[in-house]
From TrEMBL, chains A, B:
The name this protein goes by in its record: TetR/AcrR family transcriptional regulator
Cited Gene3D superfamilies: Tetracycline Repressor, domain 2 (1.10.357.10)
Taxonomic source organism: Gangjinia marincola
Keywords in alphabetical order: DNA-binding, Transcription, Transcription regulation
Location of the DNA-binding region in this protein: 27-46
Organism superkingdom: Bacteria
Length: 193, 193
DNA sequence: TTGTAAATAGATTGATTGGTCTAATTGAAG
DNA sequence: CTTCAATTAGACCAATCAATCTATTTACAA
């Protein structure tokens, strides 16, 4: 192919800008400049900004779940340790970049929830993907006895994801690593059988 | 006084609009219309939109912590049950209004984090107020043995607040009450000594 | 090479944004 | 009542927004 600027490049640029600066605070001009394409190309690829936003959410969702699945495939660790290891990798990544990144789904869902059905739906769908990936691992751990069965798999998964998302929120509001550490400590406690 | 439109009325209107539709997605015109004041009055009260935003955050912070403190003052319940009762009241409120509200601090911090120092600072300060209020109660419970001491008070508080914030995020992204219930179940488990 | 449709460039559009400005109104002090 | 500053009203402004439009280039089929 050897295409200079593919659609994926634009989605990647949008993903980074939306994660850093939010959806409504990122203008199309900024996206065009960052992706190095022209306005004509953008509107050839995407119907409008919302259509672009929805595709960015899916791009982020696939990109994230692929990485999560890869990390959770490592059978040398038991399911509980696999989850703890995954979040350790994630936390290290946030720390490495000085906590400037947030979770796109978290930010976007807060920004457009209840006012933009199409984007809200995309957030919801991708959150569900996250849940399925984590739940798979938690179910395996509950079956082999390495993860607590005090709550059913789905509830425990949602509680865990909620605590992680919330820790990212506190992190981004200037508290740095402290909420991430509190999350990791509590995660150990709540997964232990 | 008998003032028709006080500054607090504008702050309240802004708080509701920002919670519902986000900061960047709420124009000043919408605020003026909702508060029933003129542009001149608005810019007489506030230096600019950011100054208004910061004051709205403080207004929301005080309004919330006052309510939280009131609920946690009820000494007929032990500290653990007081916390569980508080979140039960909150969850009932969200349910009553069909999950349309989010937490202003959560939404705002995601929207302006890392790009608007003044507003980010206001988010951080008010989150800290939340933490202090909850931590007081958790410390009391750890001392009288009704709350787990597996984690120190501040870490446990942050983990709890993170899980609550994250549950609100998932709630607003269209999952309705399920994440709130998962949060409440997990809360019981993590507070129990 | 030619024909044709897709992709690209970027000027331009109308609507909306946050913010300013002047004039009118208000309210309290003297 | 008069005075004068504070408040309010709302027209207005430049900047920016998402989106459209036409001209041009590119890519590929015949």
């Amino acid at each position: 192919m050897n295409v200079k600027h593919s659609k994926d490049d634009v989605l990647k640029a949008g993903m980074e800008l939306f994660r850093l600066n939010g959806y409504h605070n990122t203008g199309t001009n900024e996206i065009l400049k960052s992706a190095g394409i022209s306005r004509g190309s953008f509107y050839n690829f995407f119907k409008d900004k919302d259509d672009f936003g929805a595709q960015v959410l899916d791009y982020y969702g696939v990109w994230s779940t692929d990485y999560m699945k890869e990390l959770l495939r490592d059978k040398r660790l038991n399911p509980r340790k696999r989850l703890i290891h995954l979040f350790d990798i994630f936390v290290q990544g946030y720390k490495r970049d000085n906590f400037k990144w947030g979770c796109l789904l978290v930010g976007m869902s807060q920004e457009v929830g209840q006012i933009n059905p199409k984007l809200t739906e995309a957030c919801s769908t991708n959150f569900e993907s996250f849940i399925y990936v984590f739940q798979d691992c938690i179910e395996e751990g509950q079956q082999d006895g390495t993860i607590s069965t005090a709550q059913d798999a789905r509830s425990l998964t949602i509680a865990m994801l909620a605590m992680y998302n919330g820790a990212l929120v506190l992190m981004k509001s200037g508290m740095h690593e402290e909420p991430l550490i509190a999350f990791q400590n509590q995660l150990e406690l709540m997964l232990k059988p």
